[in-house]
Amino acid sequence: MKDRKSLLILFTGVLLILVSVLAYIQPWQNWPDEETKGWQLTVVGSDGNQKVLSFQDIRELPAHEGNGGFFSTVGIVFGPYQAKGVTLEELCNIVGGIKPNEALMVSARDGYSTVLSYEQVMGDFITYSTELKEVPHQELKTILMYQQDSRLLSDADGKPLRIAIVGSPPNLLTEGNYWVKWVNKLEVLKAP
Amino acid sequence: MQKMHKHLCLLLIMAIMAGTAGCSRPGQQPPDDQVKLKVIIAGSLLVPFQSLEKEFERQNPGIDVQLEGHGSVQVIRAVTELGDIADITAVADAQLIPLMMYSNAMPDGDQAYADWTIRFSTNRLGIAYKDESAYAAEINADNWHEIMSRPDVTIGLADPRIDAMGYRTLMAIQLAEDYYQDDTIFERTIGSALDPTMKISTEGDVDTINVPEVVKTTQPRVKLRSYSIQLMALLESGDLDYSFEYESVAKQRGLKFLALPVGIDLSSPDFEPQYQQVEVNLDFRRFASVVPNFQGTRIVYGLTIPNNALHPQESARFIEFILSTDGQGIFDQSYQPLLSSPLCDNPQALPETLQTWF
């Protein structure tokens, strides 16, 4: 009888631990929803060559992981985050690559766009400490992020694809206007 | 056996504690009955609005003012394109409200996002610097462009593609050429340090500065940053000698401020025709809803209550407070000049309590 009681307590304990672990890691956060599954990223090369990639296509490309954050126009700091995605260089290579003097226009679902120079595509940015002081950096990469802090992005964070600038040392910040949310198009612009 | 029981009970307690911890979320607050007034404002208004918030909440304990600062275009896009519900929007360029909100219908009906603007404050553009800045003892309203062209002087430029301060800086420098009758000022101060150079075309009386898609600096004496707030940080740390800035922002940060002639500083209604002789054209569209062509105008701040605001009555009360003597005092302390009398383009559409002001 006592053994059965012990077994029941043990079973309940294990079950609760399992529920707690699930509640903590929330694996369903990494299950893409319908919008994410149907998302399309159009990549256009400087010769007009165009490829359309699904979210799954992007996840199957070689991934780059790193740490980085950003600050807004008024100096509010967001992150730093642990970001995972595909480098913009890798994505440009799908349509013939990007050359020095060319640029990359990044467009988003909400009509926002920004233009990155070749150097910025390769990760050349001024970096800041979390106190917003300019600080030197080592290697930086500009990526199209699909996972932030081990989770798929929420809509507020730019679901499903957002530009992120990551590198070392950790906890570097860059200017927020480059962290474009809801990215749906990358277009290599010819040299002027 | 008893020992095993103890261990199992302990395990169960730990599991329950872990489960509880897993379910809780940081930052959860018990609900209260305070009205949360969401006020989205231009970054340059943050200092006076933080003081307004404090005093207004003291006088109105049932209202919690929640400020959110952005660049002016983003303030409006937050409401019209990104689905934020704001009780008040306030921007550094009053023209943006009619441009982006009057003709833009809300999703569930024909009503526009806003149908009136109160023009309430102004500012002026000048040069921020420190006592330690190179040639600080020499600089004045006549020779600033000569000092800012020197190879051993570092100057800041906010990115005109990103920050209104950036394109207003270009306007001021171009206006200076007419004012001082010297057509080398733009090239000497910043033009020669940019790649590609910004082409200036003239049609009739209007000079148009064309900003390319990508702008880089080629000389370390000119530091280009996305936002003017970064330039202020560089000035404070001694990494920069001079940068254009609003008078209010420079003084709020304890920096020295060189006032420029009114024909350049974008502050005077009397000089509006001169200001309109310069415009900045961006070679790419950053926001689908904004045509990237900016005409020189006097700096005037505007605000409105969006038609989908959750708390229009409380919003009107907050605006009354801004316009009141108490509000004026706060603006004075923040070096942010209020217009001598606020203006409204459509007073009949205002909430009743505000109509008495116009």
Strand content of chain A: 35-45%
How can the largest sheet of chain B be summarized? 6 strands, mixed
Amount of beta strand of chain B = 15-25%
Q: What is the number of helical segments of chain B per DSSP (H or I, 4+ residues)?
A: 13
Number of helices of chain A: 5
Number of domains of chain B: 2
Order of helices and strands of chain B: HEHEHEHEEHEHHEEEEEHEHEHEEEHHEH
User: What percentage of residues of chain B falls in helices of 4 or more residues?
Assistant: 25-40%
**Physical arrangement of strands within the biggest beta sheet of chain B:** 2-1-3-16-4-17
Distance between the termini of chain B: 85 Å
Characteristic key phrases:
heterodimer, A: 192 residues, alpha+beta, Sulfite Oxidase, Chain A, domain 2, 2 domains, six-stranded mixed beta sheet, five-stranded mixed beta sheet, 22% helix, elongated, B: 358 residues, alpha/beta, D-Maltodextrin-Binding Protein, domain 2, 34% helix, globular
What does this structure look like?
The complex is a heterodimer of chains A (192) and B (358). Chain A has 192 residues and is an alpha+beta fold. Helix content of chain A is 22%, strand content 37%. Chain A is elongated, with a radius of gyration of 20 Å. In chain A, 40% of the residues are buried. With 358 residues, chain B is α/β, with parallel strands linked by helices. Chain B has helices at residues 2-23, 46-59, 72-80, 96-102, 144-147, 164-180, 185-189, 228-237, 247-252, 272-275, 312-323, 325-333, 352-355; strands at residues 35-42, 63-70, 88-91, 118-122, 125-129, 155-158, 194-195, 199-203, 206-211, 216-217, 222-225, 242-246, 256-259, 278-282, 293-295, 300-304, 338-344. Chain B has a 6-stranded mixed sheet. In chain B, strands 11-6-12-5-13 form a 5-stranded mixed sheet, sandwiched between helices. Chain B has a 4-stranded mixed sheet with strand order 8-9-14-15, covered by helices on one side. In chain B, helix 3 (72-80) runs parallel beside helix 4. Chain B is globular, with a radius of gyration of 25 Å.
